[in-house]
Specification:
This protein is α+β, with helices and mostly antiparallel strands and 336 residues long. It is 33% helix and 30% strand. Helix 1 runs antiparallel to helix 8, helix 3 runs antiparallel to helix 4 and helix 6 crosses helix 7.
Length: 336
């Protein structure tokens, strides 16, 4: 209990020290830059850095493979951050991370993932590479809720694989095309020029966090431990939300008080009753769920490593007789 109180005191102190900065808009998307200083800084590498310098190798768990689980070896001298929703390409099918994990140096772990490529279950490579993208914000929000539910049921970091596939289908259908393997990465490739426009118009601004609005509605918030670490993920975060912005362009009141709404969102996060689980790697995975917000924070050595918070939306709403428990989902999507 004392540890729980200590962790929540840390989180609330962090949230209360957030400074909101530049407001930048492009088409139907607005970003609010944020800073939070004076907290311990943990040194770590990104997944991209680890793969590029060959200190990190990610593979299927065995020759046969298992949809919701991969294996990672970190031979580096620093921990490696795996970012929630970060996509891995190759092996038997593309996957995304189900939660943020800080993999210890010189260690090997099984990691929880979801499939983002329905139409392939055969090897294209013996290990994974970084795709350069993270899942769309809608997929991450839905996945976050499913993982929180699974953790409460005691079955680990399971997502609702059916929801992930359904949302990727929607990304294809809206654009009136289907790639050969119905892969999320193919949608990013089709929209590359449009996504690049959002990235250029919404640049990094000496920040370690961001709040994002689409059509004037607040959709989510991301924070990382330092400006330098946030900078490495800024473009991936912008692409994640831009992909959804491109599919839902509406007219809206551009005189919205973006700073005021951002402050209210942060205050609400601080009021949520949380629960936590030991992470797969270093630290604790702290979960935030109420009627309006779904989120998670990775905490390690009195430092906020990464936090992701989403304004709840209804994705592929199911009727009562279609709803299945997280444990049943795990059985349905455990293996091919």
């Amino acid at each position: 209990m004392k540890n729980d109180v200590k962790k929540m005191t840390l989180v609330k102190k962090y949230l209360s020290n957030i400074e909101l900065c530049e407001v930048t808009s492009y088409k139907n998307m607005t970003t609010v830059a944020m800073k939070c200083l004076n907290f311990p800084k943990i040194k770590y590498s990104t997944l991209t850095e680890g793969i590029n310098n060959e200190s990190v190798k990610i593979t299927e768990i065995d020759e046969s493979g298992s949809v919701p689980t991969l294996n990672i070896i970190n031979n580096g001298d620093l921990p490696v951050l795996l970012f929630d929703g970060e996509e891995l390409k190759g092996a038997k099918q593309n996957r995304v991370l189900n939660t943020t994990i800080l993999i210890p140096e010189h260690s090997q772990h099984d990691i929880p993932v979801s499939c983002t490529e329905q139409g392939r279950w055969d090897y294209t490579s013996d290990h994974f590479k970084d795709s350069g993208t993270i899942a769309s914000s809608k997929i991450r929000q839905s996945k976050n809720m499913a993982v929180s539910s699974s953790l409460k049921e005691g079955i680990g970091y399971q997502s609702n694989q059916g929801e992930v596939w359904s949302e990727i289908d929607s990304l294809h259908d809206i654009r009136d095309f289907k790639s050969n393997t119905i892969a999320m990465s193919d949608v990013y490739e089709v929209e590359k020029d449009n996504l690049d426009d959002y990235i250029k118009a919404l640049p990094f601004s000496n920040q370690n966090g961001i709040l994002i609005f689409i059509n004037g509605e607040l959709k989510g918030m991301e924070v990382l431990s330092t400006e330098n670490n946030y900078k490495k993920y800024h473009e991936k975060i912008i692409k994640s939300y831009s992909l959804d912005a491109l599919t839902d362009i509406k007219e809206y009141n551009q005189n919205i008080g973006f700073i005021k709404e951002s402050k209210e969102f942060i205050k609400e996060i601080a009021t949520i009753d949380t629960f936590e689980k030991l992470s797969v790697g270093y630290g604790y995975d702290c979960r935030f769920v109420n009627d309006n917000i779904a989120g998670a924070m990775l905490l390690h050595e009195n430092s906020i490593i990464h936090g992701a918070f989403f304004k709840k939306i209804n994705i592929n709403e199911e009727s009562d007789d279609e709803v299945i428990s997280s444990s049943q989902r795990a059985k349905n999507y455990g293996n091919y």
